[in-house]
Design goal:
Helix content: 40-55%
Low-confidence stretches: 382-391
CATH superfamily of the largest domain: Histidine kinase-like ATPase, C-terminal domain
Largest sheet: 5 strands, mixed
Shape: globular
Order of helices and strands: EHHEHEHHHEHHEEHEEHHEEEHEHEHEEH
Structural class: alpha/beta
Length: 511
Amino acid sequence: MQDGAGLAVIVDEALRSSDLAPLSAWIEAQPSWSDFPFLLLTQRGGSVERNPIAKRLSETLGNVSFLERPFHPTTLVSAVRTALRGRSRQYEARERIEEIRRGEALLEKRVADRTAELEAANRQLAAQIVEREKVETALRQAQRLEAVGQLTSGVAHDFNNLLTVVIGNVEQMQKRVTDPALVRRLTMMGEASRRGARLTAQMLAFSRRQKLEPRAINLNETVQGMRDLLQSTIGGGVQILEPELADDLWPAMIDPTQIELVILNLAINARDAMDVGGTLRIRTENVETGAPTSPEDPPAGRFVVVSVSDSGSGMTDEVLARAFEPFFTTKDVGKGSGLGLSQVFGLAKQSGGGVRIETEVGQGTTIRVFLPMADAAPDAEIAVGASPKLAHAEHVVVLVVDDDDAVREVTAGYLSDLGYTVVEAGSGGAALEAFDQRQDIEAVVLDFAMPGMNGASLAREILGRRPTMPILFATGYADAEALASTPDDRVILKPFDQAELAEKLSNAFGG
């Protein structure tokens, strides 16, 4: 077994008087993916009634099959083949897990390198601002936003490509693995990848390069769904009180990912403003507002409000006046970026709402975020495993274009699993060549940011040949200006999963 055997065939007489401790220790020392198979040849079968040592052998060996003698040779061959096939699947799972781990290591290195570049750029930018003391405050803030936006957009593009690959491989593994320990680890990987996606979305919200996807949501369900995440993020030093959720709450029109980031940012700020033992509460309510009295106020109308209240130190008038300024923070150096409230304000205003702060020194702070009321009921979520799929998908040929080989492979795998026939291309030139050769192509999924001929140029060439061709843009940072005229249902943001891709492609066909 130590030399790489895939199966152990043992006659039970060999184990009756043997010390099983060394064998048991070897089995326990195997890695988590390994479940080494044993085939035990016995004269009494595997039932406890007929074979008293069957229970002890099962507990010691784990993955053991009993074959009662005498038996036909074909029965032995069949049992051996079955066990070896199972062992082969274990090795396949190990290889996929190692591939994912290598991807994670590469992802962590990329993030660390880009983060170091960002920190160095921020230090340089701060030094330049000090030297230019006479520059007006508004201009200084705009320069900061632009500089950090350029850097974060580059981070987001690479980061989202890597996350797309990780999420895609995790999804494929989850469909093929049944071992509970592996399933649990894959679930953890998926959750970690999605947290990374939320972090990227936060950077993009600051750089103002994210294309928002507002839809009608039930804000009460959003708050309830975040309770575990908030508790794990804030820690045990702050007590999160039961949310006060309004009955008959109106649906809110907002990007669901971004409002989660807003609530998380506000909760983290509240935690940092309190000593150990403080309390935090989240409330929702329906509000009708009049004419605004400050730039932060929402316009007149109906709004769904989510409030985050803390029992912390409160804000002085001087701090309150600068609360929404980018980079302004009262935290110690290294404890905060000063971006949290500016991101909250930016999202609320971009979405057609506003923000109000109610605070008293020594008593705490309440921050109220006003979100536009949606005219329609909350959109239904698409369940994983129930992705929309065209009835004629098996006859549809889709051209997938992406210069990143791993992202292209994941996208093609998603579509193949959904029943589509996939043609792949790694550049704009190769895509046009394939498009001209294949008259049966019925849809195109293409990366927006590619070297040479980018997605926009490629789309123009394709539509020049076939004006009605459905095209879905996949982008890691969704440049708002370049895609401003593109309908939301023709843009999919990286990282995406199979359900999102299926829905977007179905919409592209008008289904």
